[in-house]
Design goal:
Layout lengths: L2 H5 L4 E6 L4 E10 L2 E6 L11 E3 L1 H6 L25
Antiparallel strand pairs: 1-2, 1-4, 2-3
This protein binds zinc ion (ZN).
C-alpha cells in the first residue's frame, strides 16, 4: 500500500478546496511535478495544507464512512435489504 496508509489507519487526508469552498477529502494524483492532491469532488488541485482527521471528524464534515448498515443483509445494493420474516 502507500506510505500514507501506513501513517495511521484511521486518518483521512482533508484540505480546503477553493472551488468547493469547504473542507474536502483529497486523493493523490501524479503529474509532471510529482505528487499532487486533488479534491474528490471537483478534481481541482488542492494546495492548502493537509489535515489528517479521524473518522468522527470526517463524518462531522459530511462524509459517510464505515459500514453503511448493520441491521442485517449485506448493506444494500443487492436487494437483500428487504426483510423476510
Ligand atoms: Zn473541490
Amino acid at each position: 500500500m502507500t506510505r500514507e496508509n501506513a501513517r495511521t489507519e484511521t486518518s483521512f487526508p482533508t484540505a480546503r478546496c477553493a472551488a468547493c469552498d469547504r473542507t474536502v477529502l483529497t486523493y493523490v494524483d501524479f503529474d509532471e511535478i510529482g505528487e499532487r492532491r486533488r479534491c474528490v469532488h471537483c478534481d481541482a488541485a488542492v494546495d492548502s495544507e493537509l489535515q489528517w482527521i479521524g473518522a468522527p471528524e470526517l463524518e462531522a464534515a459530511g462524509y459517510q464512512i464505515g459500514e453503511p448498515r448493520r441491521s442485517g443483509g449485506c448493506g444494500g445494493g443487492c436487494g437483500c435489504a428487504t426483510r423476510r420474516s
